[in-house]
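Aim 2 progress update. The chain analyzed this quarter is reproduced below.
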Amino acid sequence: MEALLQISGRLVTSLNQDIFVSKPDDYAVRYNGLLNPPMYWFVSPATTGLEFVAVLVALALLIRVLTRGSRAALWKVAIPARSPTWTPRADTGLAIADYGLRLVCVICAVLTVYYKIETNRIAYLLQPCHLSNFLLAALCFVDPAKSAVAQGLFFFNLNTSFGTLIALLAPDTINLRLPGEHAFFFSQHYMLLLLPLVWLLRRRYPLYRGWRLTLLMWAYFAVMHWAAFLPTSILDNKNVNYMMLPPSVYPRALFPEFYRPIVLVACIGITFLARHALLEPLLWLGGSYRDARREAAALGDKAGKPEEVAEDELLAAKRAAAGAGKQRSQVAGRSPAGVRRRGAGAPLHDVASREIESSPRAGTE
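Predicted structure tokens:
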């Protein structure tokens, strides 16, 4: 084990030899007020290297377990996106908030790049809140109904927004020096919380349910920290999302050498709290669930269930088509007797025998 630690330490140290081995005694005096102070190894390079491998392997195994089975079994819809044929309740106020927040989102994305370049802190563009800003800015111009990728990315962002909430509860503004940067910090973080909420209240994106999916989003977020944030912090001598030095609110007496895994595990509970204990009541109070039920009832009353075919009727139609034999091509354009779509007064439909053979037993999704 000692030899393994030595190898790990040498490999990690070789990535950036400008990082101090330990915190200098005069660190607070020498670098007081400096915008980009040099880093030091709060956690030893040897422990960092082994932790890097162990955490990523553990997360890979967890993701493998969580993603077993069909996609439909994992991505279960709690609130579907609004149908284009559904006329919802009046939401003029939400519509104004939606487009106003979109404008703020795009402006914040541009200002984020400006501030980081101006202060030579480009590595901090990887801060989760900034990545969330860039993602939401892109989603402002995407039709979610035409992009399953956009729906998945939005849901990922939704489950990781607890970091934005923590940033507002315990803001770290010590390095905000440029004019307007302090006000920008709070404007950006409030927008990051409000815009996804407005989209859910307007049902622009679907909301998925299930503890397994929530845990999977946490695991992906954790992979980002160890696979991207930690290497960037080491290579660029920065502290991207506290992967080199713990935040000031972390209790130093609580196993400081293992603060990263401790915070990692604690974020599981915070993720579930933000997603299920905070977001769900807001959506109930905002009427998203109620609006989805109204839409389902209204569209169901209008069209019944036009895509469902009774199983006994389907079997009878198949037998009739099989008995046609050589005349199958002639009866392909006819409507086999007994096949009727459900719904009051629904007309008979022409069903080709080839389509009958491939029809699902329980309708389509």
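The CA atoms of residues 224 and 230 lie 9 Å apart. DSSP finds 15 helices and two strands in the chain. These observations will guide the mutagenesis experiments scheduled for the next reporting period.
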